[in-house]
Structure to design on (199 residues):
C-alpha cells in the first residue's frame, strides 16, 4: 500500500535517521490512515526476506481468555487481546519478556521475545516478567517497508526501555510518548492535526 498521497502536504519525507532492525519501534506518521493510525510497531524481524512486527498500542475489547484460556491469568496489565496488525487476524502471537531463554521463548531483542503459545503456561510463565497476546501481525514484503520509509509514512525509533514500551500500562499513550521522547521534528508530530489544512 502506498502512503505518499497522505504525506504530500507534510514535510518529513526522506531517509530515516536510523535503519530498521529487530527491536526497533516503527512509529506511524500523523496522517497515516487505518489500520495503522497512530500505531507503534515493534519490529520482530527485518531482513532480505521482509519485515514482521506487532502493533503495540491497539487493544481490542476481546478477552484473551476466550482465545487462549490457559494464558489469561499470566497476561500483563489486563486480559485484553491486542490487534497486532492486519495480517492473519485468526492467528495469535505471544510477546514476552524474560531474563533467560527458556524453551518456548525465542529472543528478538534484549529481554523481548516471541512466545510459543503451545508451550504449557505453567512451564514457561515462571521465566517471564511480562506477557501479551496479539491477534495478527504487521508484515511487509522485501523492500516494501524501505519504500514507505522514504515516503515518510513511518519513523524508526530505538526504544529507551524496550520492555517498558512493549508493556506500557496505558498503550493508548505510547504513540505520543514515543514521539516526545524522540524529540526534534518527531516531537512535533504529536501536534499535527488530522486534517493538515486546519491550522
Amino acid at each position: 500500500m502506498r502512503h505518499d498521497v497522505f504525506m504530500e502536504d507534510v514535510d518529513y519525507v526522506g531517509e530515516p535517521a536510523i535503519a530498521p532492525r529487530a527491536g526497533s519501534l516503527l512509529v506511524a506518521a500523523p496522517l497515516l490512515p487505518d489500520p495503522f493510525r497512530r500505531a507503534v510497531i515493534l519490529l520482530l524481524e527485518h531482513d532480505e526476506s521482509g519485515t514482521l512486527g506487532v502493533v503495540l498500542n491497539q487493544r481490542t475489547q476481546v478477552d484473551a481468555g476466550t482465545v487462549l484460556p490457559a494464558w489469561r491469568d499470566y497476561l500483563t496489565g489486563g486480559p485484553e487481546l491486542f490487534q497486532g496488525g492486519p495480517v492473519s487476524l485468526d492467528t495469535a502471537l505471544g510477546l514476552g519478556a524474560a531474563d533467560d531463554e527458556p524453551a518456548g521463548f525465542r529472543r528478538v531483542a534484549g529481554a523481548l521475545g516471541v512466545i510459543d503459545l503451545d508451550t504449557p503456561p505453567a512451564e514457561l510463565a515462571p521465566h517471564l516478567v511480562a506477557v501479551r497476546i496479539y491477534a495478527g501481525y504487521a508484515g511487509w514484503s522485501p523492500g516494501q517497508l524501505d519504500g514507505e520509509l522514504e515516503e515518510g509514512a513511518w519513523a524508526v525509533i530505538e526504544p529507551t526501555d524496550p520492555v517498558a514500551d512493549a508493556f506500557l500500562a496505558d498503550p493508548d499513550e505510547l504513540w505520543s510518548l514515543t514521539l516526545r521522547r524522540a524529540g526534534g521534528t518527531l516531537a512535533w508530530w504529536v501536534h499535527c492535526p488530522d486534517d493538515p489544512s486546519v491550522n
Summary: Residues 4-189 form a domain with the VC0467-like fold (CATH 3.40.1740.10). The chain has one domain: 4-189. The helical segments are 4-7, 121-124, 144-151, 162-166, 174-182, 184-189.
